[in-house]
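Q: Sequence in, structure out?
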Amino acid sequence: MKISMISRIIYLTLLVIFSLSCTKSIEDERLEKDNATIEKYLNSRNLKFTKQNGVYHVIRNKGYGYRVAQGDSISFWYVGYTFGTGGLVFDTNILEVALEISLDTSVLSLLPVVTVAGDNELIEGLRRGLLICREKEIATLLFSSIYGFGNQKVGPIPSWSPLAYDILLISVNNCQIRVEQENISTFVSQNEGFVQDTLGFWIKFLNESYTDLKPSIGDTIYGWYRASVLNGDVFAETPEVGQQIIIGDDELTEGLTFGFMLMSPNQNAELVVPSSMGYGVNGYGAVAPYTPIFYEIRLDSIK
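A: Exactly. Output:
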């Protein structure tokens, strides 16, 4: 009797394990199939993409604002659609798009989505995908049906449909961003001459330019820079006065790269770079997350 009972328990346990492994196998197969479909779609359109946490990310118009972090307050516009044969737009909060494709606007919320990044009110693919995006960026997020509506048929969306969302991320905010922006505002108000560039950093030219020649991405220049936090603590400086620097090199922050691209040979400038174009939400070495950078820079010549 005891042996029979033990045998039955073992049988039931194995049955549960087998059932779970079958379910996992089906999901894995679906994920693999959907990802192949997504990559075929992207490659057929020659779209450059990255893949992170199971979501494909295509930058349509690059933004240089803050990267989204878990718990940030965010707002965004979107267009949701299926793709491939029979692709259709099934949802949007943009009035012009809704009218163009004759969606029923009476059932749509035609306002920006305002939510907390990582919040469970969004479907899994959007939750994961938004954490890849940046403020002011226009991007397309594509993901498997496993992260969408799965085997459910939702309105006009067939079951097991991979989904795509075009996203315009309007704003990203948290308490650290607010403190950083206050610190930058105080600094530039106390140091006259700074002008904010359209990308978001601040620049002050210390002498006139006598030529329209400016470097571009990929150019080699000779120059110098010193980097410090706003309290004056220096954390980096070029080892030589006429240091060779490649514009767009990964060692340069975005703010420093674009600062040099506004300069002409024999020109000096100062930059105030927000962390969104510096070391961001993770920081780097002695630079804490959400820390703006003060640069003193000089462009000697362009090779």
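Residues 11-16 have pLDDT under 50 and may be disordered.
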